[in-house]
Amino acid sequence: MRGYLAVLIDLGVDLRRLLRHIGVIALLLPLSTLAAPEQASAGHDWSVWGGQLRMRVDQTLLDQIGVDQLSISDGLETTSDPRPGMAIADTSVLEFRAINDSIQAFTAGRLPLLGEVTLHQGTLRHQLRGASIQAGASDLALRIVDGNGAVWFELDHLHYHLIADSDEFRAWNIDLRVSAELAERLGQPLAAGHFLGQVELQTRFRLSQTMGDDPPYCQPIRWPETYIDPENPDAGRYQADVTLNDAFLNNLTVSALRCETPTRACDGPGGTDARMVIAPSAELRNTNAANTAAIPWYRKFSGVFLPYGNDQHPFLVWNIYRIEENGKRLRQVGRSGVKHAYLTANSGCNGGCPNTHPQNNFNILWPNCQDTYGTGDNDNSTHLGPRSEIVPNAVIWGRCGSVYDVNCNGLNDFPTIGDFEYRTELRESAIDPNLHPQSSFHIEAWYLIRDDKNIFNSMGTRRFFPVYASAWFLSTSGQDFAQGPMVDNWVSPDSVGQLQRNRMLATTEGHLKMAVKVEPLAEGDYRYEYALANFDFARAITSGSEPNLRVLSNRGMLSIEMPLPQTATLFDTDFHDGDHDPDNDWVIERDGEVLRIRGDIDHTLDWATQFSFGFRSSQPPAPGLADLAIAETGVPSSYAISTLVPNRDADVLLVDSMEDEG
Fold this sequence. Notes:
The protein is mainly β. It is about 5% helix and about 40% strand. The chain has 6 helices and 42 strands. β11 and β12 form a beta hairpin. It is globular.
């Protein structure tokens, strides 16, 4: 007992509060006797009232919907806080349901706003009178409504701070979006859901009943890969398994924010082919099995913590894809930098551990809890960096020598990162429907979690429809969210037969998938289209160790080789890497009975990246192997992956055969 308490003291745990919450007896019990995470504690109906609302609205985003200015009359002073805002009257309350300090849903009531919002649109003035904040379309969303009940703004993807032994309730990083009704009022129906900026809400709250104790299973913390029962190793270990799923109304939306032009405006089809900045919103949930681990979520430079001896946190990356000619080929046309996650709100837990628990302070995603990062958060310069600093298969950041700690002294350099650095590499032309008829456009997002037992359920995709009307609007309305990577949407991993295939290569160094579609042509030839997706493969070269790890290189694959019989013709070759630079494209060449697609050491197929290539051949497809050469030296020098290749004359299979590769 004395040794265990000493460890807790070393970790900075407030023992008085710990004992008050979970009881001395819980510290003495083996873990197997504690409550299972499925046990939900009693809920509490709480209410918030009074306070203030502050807005940070981007004028560039207002310009996109034809609004010259947003002004507030009788609002809050802006001397101490430059963000315009409105006071919240004390006359009404907004009610919500909570369990263990975790908000489940906003349920009823309203928060009246004092003042008047005016949107200036040319000579028109759209005035929001009698405004109030009310519950939104989903459990954890809010909206701003006028005195006649018309919805003006949707508020979603909030972070919140709820302190049970005080009266403070703060919600911040809330995305401010145009409602469908306001979009119609502005004569911009495409602007429904358009991101305008962020909102912060500061109120007071009161409990309808006394708070209960924290669930006993919150201590000791169930870190990934720790034993479920230290006295019985055969009982197994706790496992990380965070999912990006479709349980949320607005999961995985995408917004076009600005273009890299002097005015920051995108001029659309036929204009300057500028690089676009897009950002998604994304929501995830920790699983709730008996062996589900708690996930460390420590902000960079916040210190050195268990279980990894660093400031471990998840990373978010996203990519943009185009499926061409009604499904014939898949192209990755845009990819992001890395978003460093920095806190987890633990909402919708239904029995999880609260944010006010000792050792938490927004630094742990508990089992059965969800978290969110909105559009504004994913475009925040202070949390973005390059992919080159990450060891993807280990999910480790090389802080030493990074853009945030160039001299490796363990202190944040607070670098100046502009509005276009580490953003999405996406050109306007890449999503122009006029240039790409019969194409569909998709976003893919992925949370990288250290020790995640299934990387594919923390990925998801959703189709969007790009329309230019004075600005780009990327609507995901009515489009289903699909769990998993984009390549699985193009060709199912369950595909059999001789016309399409999608197979995975899983190694200790990471995962890749290769998908192929083969089209028989009227002339008797065959069109082969391949997509090779590198998810987290890297033979990383590093120096030092955590927390002072330096990533010197994290390259992936250097070339692809597959058999090509002497009798097979090869023409109409095509290669696509998504970077809009033809000078670094991989070369497709024939060498005897080998088809080689190769790059150079300065342009490798790295993690979270897909390369596509295709060709036309006289030979029908048959199962075969492609050899993937690794950019860095080591053993092995390459890996083989199953796919379809042009067949030899002597063993031609029927094109419509449903044989497996055996």
